[in-house]
Amino acid sequence: MRKLVLILGLSLAGAAWAHNCPNEMKAIDAKLQTHPELSKADADKVAKLRADGERLHKAGKHDESMAALGEAKKLLGI
After folding, report:
1. Which of 4, 27, 28, 68 could anchor a disulfide with 52, C-beta 3.0 to 4.6 Å?
2. CATH of the domain at 41
3. Cα–Cα distance between 27 and 40 in angstroms, integer?
4. How many domains does the chain have?
5. What is the pLDDT of residues 3-34, one digit of tens each?
6. Which residues lie closer than 8 Å to 2 by C-beta, 6 or more apart?
């Protein structure tokens, strides 16, 4: 019984992580709406990472999506 509960808990944790991608994208979008001061190169990189994150999320590659979105958030200072 304990193993079943542990497996169920880990499955739910993975699902929660996977569904956090949209929240990360929303945070990036909200920050971009404030027109942060970024160099052209950084702004282009953030846009690419944001797009990559969404594409990877839709492909079911949530770990990769979160990595790309996390990098974009670092560039934005969030």
Report:
1. 68
2. 1.20.1270
3. 20
4. 1
5. 644 454 545 544 444 569 999 999 999 999 99
6. none
